[in-house]
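My main concern about presentation is that the manuscript never shows what a single data entry looks like. An entry of this sort, consisting of the sequence and the corresponding backbone structure tokens, reads as follows:
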Amino acid sequence: MENILIEKQDNIAVVTINRPTKLNALNKATIQELHDGFKALNEDKTVKAIIITGSGEKAFVAGADISEFANFSIAEGQQLAAEGQALLFDFVQNLSTPVIAAVNGFALGGGLELAMSCHFRIASTNAKMGLPEVTLGVIPGYGGTQRLAQLIGKGRAMELIMTAGMIDAETAKNYGLVNHVVAQEELLEFAKGIATKISNNSTVAIAKAIQAINANFEDGTNGYAVEIENFGACFGTEDFKEGTTAFLEKRRAIFPGK
């Protein structure tokens, strides 16, 4: 891995995008490394929550690496978006292991799209977020037009995308784009605190919950039906047996993750 760092401790993995000279901009190599990293962590049963952040104090991810696609054709542009969405952004959204974005600075373009693909977001007080693609004569291509509207509403998404504006962390919190805003020096520990709470719960149930919540945003999918199916499936798991037994015995559950 040349562009990302992965650290694991106490059932929590921290993925750091490490291209500080490029403000952690996403290029093809970084997207591939992130895919590989997330895939490996998702398969590691000792990892119960993942935090993704950027190196340094300026940027989470300042955007995509424009030099890679400045001369692309229509077909190449469509392929770039399709492959990127499948490889990373949709992949992260549908990961069964919870992914928390710790937004430690600028999250612009592909950076905000990556943060939005995570299951939820925490921002530092200095964070700035936006989708400035129209200033380049293009639109967000990694799910930005879809996820931003889902998270903050159609009108606000329209304004933010059309003006290419940036919002600060408190505004992002007021819009519902991020869950919490904390000082930058507290960001990672705060995220780890939430990740620890997650890691104490049933990984099987959490994976089913992620799937059910995401189903509500999929065209042609009945989210309520997925919820019913996944609720029932939980009854056949060892985690359900342990969780209910521990409750009745008035002790803390120790979930086997099965």
Notes: The chain has a mean pLDDT of 97. Strands lie at 4-9, 12-17, 49-54, 59-61, 99-103, 106-108, 120-124, 128-130, 166-168, 180-182.
